[in-house]
Amino acid sequence: MTRQNRVLAIHDISCFGKCSLTVALPIISATGAECAVIPTAVLSTHTGGFTGFTYRDLTEDITSIVDHWETLDLGFDAIYTGFLGSFEQIDIISETFDRLEGLRIVDPVMADDGVLYPVFDSNFPKGMRKLCEKADIILPNITEACLMLEEEYVEGPYTPEYIEGLMERLSGIGAKKVVLTGVYFDENKLGAATYDAETGERSYYFSDRVPGYFHGTGDVFGSAFVGSYMNGCPLADSVRIAVDFTVGSIKRTYAAKTDVRYGVNFEQGLLQLIKDISEKNESISDSE
Ligand code: PXL
Fold first, then answer.
1. Which of 128, 273, 276, 287 gets the highest tally of CB atoms within 10 A of its CB?
2. Contacts of 277 (CB under 8 A, 6+ apart)
3. Does some domain include residue 1?
4. Whole-number Å distance between alpha carbons of 246 and 98
5. Given ligand 1 and candidates 42, 47, 124, 220, which is best to mutate, with the most ligand atoms within 8 Å of its CB?
């Protein structure tokens, strides 16, 4: 039995609408890793498509939680951050990286489809870039990548040259491992690419594109990636497993014609996720 990994997920809790912590906690736990949390804010719903949502900022609590944990000498194997609400929160999380040990996995959640989420001002990508400087692995989509690099957003289909250049420039920010989502070379397939600046290794993984925009899928992908990677799957396999899990969740939601603001049906894919991770781990131990 391998040692259970302990992951710290730092995201908001959107009480309804399946994203951030309501996605990270069940998915990471299901993969067999322990998942501790720091909620950065409590919202009645996420901000994508709902109006009138409540927002209780918990910035002040983050430092007190970490102060307490320091007295307990807790160690984490990974710290996974997602949606953060302000520059102040970014600074506090950056300090938290120095105070708590753990592989730093940053999803710079702030934009999609060429557009910064309306809740952020135009300087926000500079703050996220600073957090990515301290990360070990970053998980941006192409819009977030362009914003952090201060490059104009380009619509796809993309070329391998463009994607690889983008990932190399992203690794120049700091994180040596880059996972780029929203990659496509033709209209039928959509997926993700990886780049490890230390080994020079690159990988791509695509699946069928399901038409439409589904809320929370970045967090579903990120959480499944973290769960797979922290359970010993290599970078490229973790991305493959996370893409399959995300696409399965989207397909179930599409078939059920659920309101896309309500998030995707990831719950019914958890068993397959666990199977995919164990299968990969068995193939690794068979080859050793
Ligand atoms: O899924 C990303 C996310 C997380 N948390 C909140 C959001 C969003 C995206 O809109 O609004 C509060």
1. 128
2. 31, 32, 227, 228, 231, 233, 241
3. no
4. 32
5. 47
The arithmetic mean of pLDDT across residues 150-162, rounded, is 97
Collapsing DSSP states into helix, strand and coil, what is residue 49? Answer: coil
Model pTM score: 0.98
Q: Are the CB atoms for 15 and 44 separated by under 8 Å? A: yes
Q: What is the pLDDT of residue 263?
A: 98
Decide: residue 168, CB within 10 A, 0-12 exposed, 13-18 middle, 19+ buried: middle
Could you tell me which residues are beta bridge partners of residue 124?
none
Residue to probe by mutation, ligand 1, list 83, 116, 221, most atoms within 8 Å of CB: 83
Name the residue with the closest Cα to ligand 1, atom 10. Answer: 48
Task: Tell me if 211 is assigned to some domain.
Answer: yes
Q: How many domains does the chain have?
A: 1
Tell me whether residue 54 is in a domain: yes
Mean pLDDT on 197-218: 96
Tokens 């299968």 appear where? 279
Residue ranges lining ligand 1, Cβ < 6 Å: 12, 14, 19-20, 43, 46-48, 83, 109, 117, 216, 218-219
User: If you average pLDDT over residues 191-198, what whole number do you get?
Assistant: 98
- Ligand 1 pocket test: which of 46, 141, 213, 260 has the largest number of ligand atoms within 8 Å of its C-beta? 46
Domain residue limits at 217: 6-287
Q: How far is the CA of 216 from the centre of ligand 1 (A)?
A: 7
CATH number at residue 77: 3.40.1190.20
- CA 117 to centroid of ligand 1, rounded, Å: 9
- Please state, in angstroms and rounded to a whole number, the distance separating the CA atoms of residues 123 and 88: 13
Residue-level pLDDT at 3: 67
